[in-house]
Task: structure prediction
Amino acid sequence: MAKKKEQFKVIVDKLAELKDTSELMIDLAYSSLLLNNRHLAEEVQALEEHMDELHTKFEQLVLSSGFKPEESKDFLGLIRLGVTTEQIADAGAEIAEVVLRGLTPHPILKLAIEEAEETVTRVQISPQSSLVGKTLRQAQIHEETGMWILAIRRGNVWLRPKPNTIINQGDVLIASGYAEGEEDLEKLSSPNE
Amino acid sequence: MVCYCGDFHPHWSVLRHMVKLEKIEYKPIPVRDLLVEIKDLSELMIDLAYSAALFDSKELAEEVLELEERVDTLAYLIDMNVMIAVRDAQDAELLLAASIVASAADKISDAAADIATIVLQNIGIHPIVRQAFEKVEEHLIRAKIESNSILVGTLLDELELAARIGVDIIAIRRNKEWIINPKEREKLEEGDVLIARGAPHGIDELKGLAEGTIRKLED
Result:
């Protein structure tokens, strides 16, 4: 039973990664479109390849978990959920492709509130930052700086910002907003520089 | 949508016919407005669909199917408006992106509906997997505001739900209309369906408040 629990933990972790990556891709894909930002679009494409690998690993894990016939229905649900994460990721890649092919200069794609002076910025969290150890909800970054956090990069892993995501020292925050907010965000993340 | 014919989905035909397919008539709406809406709705659908699957919530799954219908309509309207706006080759190049984005948003919505279907057909997700997710994920719920709820007639910012009970309202459904990321001055009405995210304790409290079983908001 302990072994089985361990096995499940691996499957769950992989599924969580698939889910989070697919959600992050959609966030970044729409942002790349709104901001006409190739850099973000390229990240989406890179994540799509990562998704393909993750999905294969996930399916292998599920299929090799040695489930009993009466459990097959539960495992079918897992497999199908995996397939849909992949479909969502593909749709994200299609949106990013629009940006990479240079199809976006049309004003129609500058959706609503988004304005030309809006920028994408990245800041790294220094050890002295007051943000270290806070959740995004506690950090109130948008209220303080006007910037929206699009994604967090921790080492090689991309995280999708959630209210209860804890900010670590060394995290790179990718944020969008007006140029004025950029400086405020930099001060928050590395106060001594 | 793929149909894996088997014994697991006796309700399949019911589900497919739950949505009566109606003719979608052309309406002159700016493509930009339609794109904003299809973007917001497709994002909300992913959120709802994953939560429906991980927490085995039929209520959330039903909302996903509700949204799918609207996204289908929007995708049609975007294409129709794009077709009408194109007068020459240059227009075609410029507006192609709108059409591609609409189609991608529609795919996202279809995938989310597939997830909802997994939940509604009782295929389900292994209980151990659900238990694991319950620990790491914030919960999403649907709560309908009943006539005797103290929420009726209040403004969102008066309630300070985020500060008081750690809950964010991410969408409100009012009949067929969806209000995504509602503004602070949004007034809540009887019959509103709230989609909210937060810690388990907070969302239980919100549900109680909406249903009128809790009559006072904690400070």
